[in-house]
Design a protein that fits this description.
The chain is of the alpha/beta class and 384 residues long. It has helices spanning 8-20, 29-41, 102-116, 138-144, 204-222, 260-280, 300-314, 331-337, 366-383, and strands at 45-50, 54-59, 69-75, 124-130, 155-166, 170-171, 175-178, 180-189, 193-194, 229-238, 244-245, 248-257, 284-293, 296-298, 319-320, 340-348. The structure holds nickel (II) ion (NI).
């Protein structure tokens, strides 16, 4: 089946319009308004307010042509970053920026919807424009509001524009490709006093230093060497003055895994390490541990299907395997419920790439064409 050609200028114009109007998680009202208007005009059945600011659009198949439903997901939110790029489509909002490429994800989703609007498909296609990926709860909110039902979704696909890959390449592989994200906070309680009389105190600063060091032994000594894992302590705070030993110290950090035993054991290990070390010094530790998102795991069959489409779009030698990251992504919530695949679309400009979440992040817009072509063909293959 042939689809209408990609509207390259339209695709780029949409991305630039969204880039100039970034909105943070669960505040994507302009973005979701634009999405809903376009999809309604294309003839889709549109539901707004799914997971607060999310939008869902469905095109059911012609009678008797099939009952399967494939869902494409695009995240819509921006980041609290002041844009440092000097481009015509620079963010028009102080302190907000599309620094992760989600503007491109929305533009790609809309272009795929436009191309598929008139296609005769053997089944239904559903689009999930998701809020709040960066704060890790937009996907869960949409699932709670029924995005995977009516019609019931059989498979889900999504992409991320990816500046670690050159434009013109696609990264895809089965199994876990993005990590679980856990957050921990540790409060160490000692006893404050004079810096010149440490024997009269229980110094929580020294305890905190030992806890930070001991936490680094979890990856090196408590995890199976062939299981991936990261423990990072990212914030240490205590004290106010050079001559006062404070009464408490606080640590904040994250654990990342691809699942497995280390994922299961990490909350207990962090608690045991912090409490045990603190106890050895006569202090106590309170640990608060939260699971933010699960590992993102690609289904084998769905990955093979998307990979075939990728080879058609960029050629076999431009499809990279082994692209994985310890970053998190709440597409994992959809892929826990239904089989699917999440792929990385190379977007690094030839002149050099800025990292995701940096104030100078930008993409080579040719990546939009690659992404739209890939997802269009993936839908056709799934419903073919
Ligand atoms: Ni992102």
């Amino acid at each position: 089946m042939s689809l209408p050609p990609i509207d390259r200028p339209g695709l780029i114009a949409t991305r630039r319009d969204l880039h100039a109007h970034p909105e943070l998680g669960f505040q994507e009202t302009r973005t979701s308004g634009l999405v809903a208007e376009r999809l309604t005009a294309l003839g889709y059945a549109v539901r707004t307010g799914v997971g607060k600011t999310g939008v869902v659009a469905v095109r059911t198949s012609a009678p008797n042509s099939g009952t399967r439903c494939v869902m494409l997901r695009a995240d819509m939110d921006a980041l609290p970053i002041e844009e440092a790029n000097d481009v015509p489509y620079r963010s028009g909002h102080a302190g907000r920026m599309h620094a992760c490429g989600h503007d491109g994800h929305v533009a790609i989703g809309l272009e795929v919807a436009r191309r598929l609007a008139q296609a005769s498909l053997a089944g239904a296609v559903k689009f999930a424009f998701q809020p709040a990926e960066e704060i890790s709860n937009g996907a869960a909110a949409m699932i709670q509001d029924g995005v995977l039902e009516d019609p019931k979704v059989d498979a889900a696909f999504g992409i991320h524009l990816w500046n670690d890959l050159p434009v013109g390449t696609i990264g895809v592989m089965p199994g876990p490709v993005m990590a679980s994200v856990d957050e921990f906070e540790i409060t160490i309680l000692g006893r404050g006093g004079h810096a010149a009389a440490p024997h009269q105190t229980v110094d929580p600063v020294l305890v905190a230093a030992h806890v930070v060091t001991a936490l680094q032994s979890l990856v090196s000594r408590r995890r199976h060497p062939l299981e991936e894992g990261v423990v990072s302590v990212t914030r240490v705070s205590a004290g106010q003055a050079f001559n006062v030993i404070p009464g408490r110290a606080d640590l904040h950090g994250t654990v990342r895994t691809f699942g497995g035993n280390f994922w299961k054991e990490a909350p207990g290990l962090v608690e045991q390490t912090a409490s045990g070390v603190a106890g050895a010094f006569g202090a106590t530790a309170e640990v608060r541990y939260r699971r933010l998102s699960t590992p993102l795991v690609n289904d084998g069959r769905m990955t093979a299907l998307l990979r075939e489409a990728a080879v058609e779009v960029v050629g076999k030698d431009k499809v990279a395997s082994g692209v994985r990251t310890m970053g998190g992504e709440d597409m994992s919530y959809f892929l826990q419920k239904v089989p699917g695949c999440f792929a990385f679309i190379g977007s690094a400009p030839k002149s050099g790439a800025s990292p995701h979440h940096s104030a100078t992040f930008d993409i080579d817009e040719e990546a939009l064409v690659v992404g739209a072509e890939l997802l269009s063909r993936t839908v056709l293959r799934f419903l073919g």
